[in-house]
Amino acid sequence: MVAMKGVMNETTPLFLAGIRLLPAGLLVVLVSVLLGREQPKGWRAWLWIGLFALIDGTLFQGFLAKGLERTGAGLGSVMIDSQPLAVAIMARFLFQEWIGPLGWLGLLVGLIGISFIGLPDEWVLTFFQGQWLNLEPVITFKQEVLSVLFQQGEWLMLMAALSMAAGTILIRYVARWADPVAATGWHMVIGGTPLIVASLAETVGSQSAGSLPWQGLSLPGILEISYATIFGSAIAYGVFFYIAAQGNLTSLSALTFLTPVFALLFSTLLLSESLSHLQWSGVLLTLLSIYLINQRFFLANWISAKFPAAFSPRLASWLSPTDIKTSSTHKASD
User: Fold this and answer.
1) What residue ranges are annotated as transmembrane (predicted)?
2) What average pLDDT does this structure show over 230-246?
């Protein structure tokens, strides 16, 4: 996020999004070939990879770059890493991954935290002050909502987060028909191509026609893009989706909540960005939610073992299913 934000004023958001994906995808495909991994075959494999590319490639990176243009790197990172909330819900109903009461509590805390971060401070403060009845007329309020949704970067970041969450779920289906590492590389190539084309079309249609999106890049800008492409895309995507194809999606995706800690630290040190007190409260709540989600198995076992007399057998099994320690896909009812 910090590297992308640093080079944002030297190129266009869509070109930055595309250049993060296309070369990184080619690199991942090359590595998959060198490792001898099977390349996609058949129309089903390419159909799933195409859908994966559209949602997790084109839409995710497009929303991300456009949103980052209008918000800070640290805040943008927090918004992006709200995606584990959506992943947990979808994985619960699609793959029967156990969430449990502590997990649901973590999701609720995370949603509150994301609301504190993404919604205008006035809306949140108005809600807690009980002044909703004194809001502007309905038409004016709808216009304000649309303004936030389509003009402020936070909500574009939220759309990016939802796209990434859907992509995390899709990799399970893609992996049924194609090798996850090879599919990850090809989805980046396919998803990045429309972004490059759109950035060129956007440049031609703008007042700065004739100035290609890469012509204003400085050496530091090229290095920042290279970092975002190699480390932020090729390595991160390859590892993440390889594990997502076979691991517990809720716990895995929840680990990405650690990203904002580093993004906020580096954006404060390098870009002199700052958050409001309410937004910092949202960040803390968001980090608390990741702890509850990712440690829900340990906490459930600890609570039921520490206070056995406080729970009936049925309540204890609801809090901590018996197959917690032995099953990677928890199917106990919550």
Assistant:
1) 14-34, 46-65, 102-119, 155-174, 186-205, 225-245, 252-271, 277-294
2) 81
